[in-house]
Amino acid sequence: MLNAFDGLDDERRRTDAGKQIPNLASIGLKATNFDLRDFTPGNIESAFGYPGFLWVRGGNVFTLRMAMARFGLDQIVVDGLAANRFVYAGFSAGPACSSPAWQGWNCATPSKSAARRTATSASMDSQGSTVPSCRT
Predict the structure, then answer these.
(1) C-alpha–C-alpha distance, residues 134 and 50, integer Å
(2) Which of 81, 95, 78 is CA-nearest to residue 1?
(3) CA distances from 136 to 27, 40, 47, 71 (A)
(4) DSSP state of 55
(5) Closest CA to 116 of 37, 63, 79
């Protein structure tokens, strides 16, 4: 999922998907790009289905969080993780969207630019998970 790149050029998205999907395949995971912009809040749950995992790429944490909230994927993720339906993984903004607190993320990612790019405002409440983060 590349929605942390919403508002950026499509070539960058294609290039990144062209790297992420083969990287996941190299460790035995079959992935496709799930772009929230292709759906509506009304059909997101049926489109999401029951994947074995959700890999969420980094980028702008506020852009990603707003997209997830706008389409209702945030609640689908919370419910799915609570029921142990799939694994939620990724890097940078991906796991940050499920962190238990938002204080400090604005130091790493500008929230105003995210609102301009996505032309929306959404709750910045956390999803309530605890996510470890490290640099490699």
Answers:
(1) 28
(2) 95
(3) 17, 36, 33, 31
(4) E
(5) 63
The per-residue b/e assignment along 42-76, b for 16 or more CB within 10 angstroms, e otherwise, is: eebeeebeeeeebbbbbbbbbbbbbbbbbbbbbeb
pTM equals: 0.73
Backbone φ, ψ for residue 53 (5° rounding)? -155, 160
Question: What is the C-alpha separation between 114 and 4, in angstroms, rounded?
Answer: 9
CB 62 within 8 A of CB 114: yes
Q: pLDDT in tens for each of the 136 residues of the chain?
A: 989 988 888 898 889 889 999 999 999 999 999 999 999 999 999 999 989 999 999 888 888 988 999 999 999 998 999 999 999 999 888 888 877 665 555 555 554 554 444 444 444 454 544 343 434 4
**In this structure, is the dihedral angle defined by the CA atoms of residues 33, 36, 40 and 45, taken in order, positive or negative?**
positive
Q: How many C-beta neighbours within 10 Å does residue 106 have?
A: 13
